[in-house]
Amino acid sequence: MAAYISKITEFLTELKKKNPEIERGQMEGRALLWDKSPTTVNEQKTEKLAKIPQKSYVYSND
After folding, report:
1. Which of 15, 22, 25, 39 could be 43's S-S partner, Cβ–Cβ 3.0 to 4.6 Å?
2. Consecutive 10-residue runs of the chain (62 residues): their mean pLDDT?
């Protein structure tokens, strides 16, 4: 018995076969927006020191 394949999955499979550069573009976009390079210990310390502590009640004027 064959597994069910939706119309959308068939469409995307065919689209990627016709245009193999689509997948490369997806990976580049992901790398640009989501994949972060590892930070050094000094960078982590700097980021931690740069954070401003939030007040317990954010709407107070104090």
Report:
1. 39
2. 91 94 91 82 90 79 62
User: Can you tell me the distance from the alpha carbon of 5 to that of 58, in angstroms, rounded to the nearest whole number?
Assistant: 50
Handedness of CA 17, 18, 20, 25 (dihedral sign): negative
Look up tokens 């597994």; give the residue.
Answer: 3
**What is the residue whose two structure tokens read 């007040």?**
55
Phi and psi, residue 57, nearest 5°: -125, 105
pTM (2 d.p.): 0.46
What are the CA-CA distances from residue 31 to residues 10, 16, 28, 39, 59 (Å)? 26, 19, 5, 16, 37
